[in-house]
Amino acid sequence: MAAELVHVVDDDPAMRDSLAFLLDTAGFAVRLYETGTDLLDRLPRAAAGCVLTDICMPGIDGLDLIRRLREVGHRLPAVVMTGHGDVPLAVEAMKRGACDFVEKPFDDEVLLRALRSALAPGRPAEAADPAVQDFLRRVETLSERERQVLDRLVGGATSKEIGRALDISPRTVEIYRAKLMAKTHATNIQDLVRRAVLAGLA
């Protein structure tokens, strides 16, 4: 069986080399691109696989790259890599069609899991995905304050910013955050944001 193909777009040569080694070792076929323009110029019309792109790059950034791919008819699933704290960018990327995001520095297994999920045949339509429906049911169990914290977390606000907005201490925000994470079964903020976007809450 042919190896699944990952198109890696990152302007950092060291990161490209590192990703190429990781993905090759994990059994993927890899093509490397320095810029979004490189990918757009070299990607065949009937391209296979998925795109793994950094979100912050000179010229065409990851968000613009996803938009342009969709405009020219490419429907390859895309996973974006974001810097720490770039939750609003990750949310925007998913709204534009990315199927997942990973925060740098990331655990190798987290990235590989995201890519395998993106490449899985027959990924369920978001609205019909039982996992999305389950998440929405769990969100309905949140208290009003927990929902306020959820909305601001997904918007990219820090605990301090949420505390100021809701007139509570950052420590209290952390308590609400822990409660809502437990109720929604989110494993981390990245998982929470992903679920919220897929459920149409972000």
Automatic annotation (TrEMBL):
SMART domains recorded: HTH_LUXR, REC
SUPFAM superfamilies referenced in this protein's UniProt entry, alphabetically: C-terminal effector domain of the bipartite response regulators (SSF46894), CheY-like (SSF52172)
Keywords annotated in UniProt: DNA-binding, Phosphoprotein, Transcription, Transcription regulation, Two-component regulatory system
All residue ranges annotated as the Response regulatory domain in the record: 5-119
Ranges of residues in domain HTH luxR-type: 135-200
Gene Ontology biological process terms in this record: phosphorelay signal transduction system; regulation of DNA-templated transcription
Highest taxon in the source lineage: Bacteria
Protein name, entry field: Response regulator FixJ
4-aspartylphosphate: residues bearing it: 54
GO molecular function, one term: DNA binding
CDD domains per the UniProt record, alphabetical: LuxR_C_like, REC_FixJ
PROSITE patterns recorded: HTH_LUXR_2 (PS50043), RESPONSE_REGULATORY (PS50110)
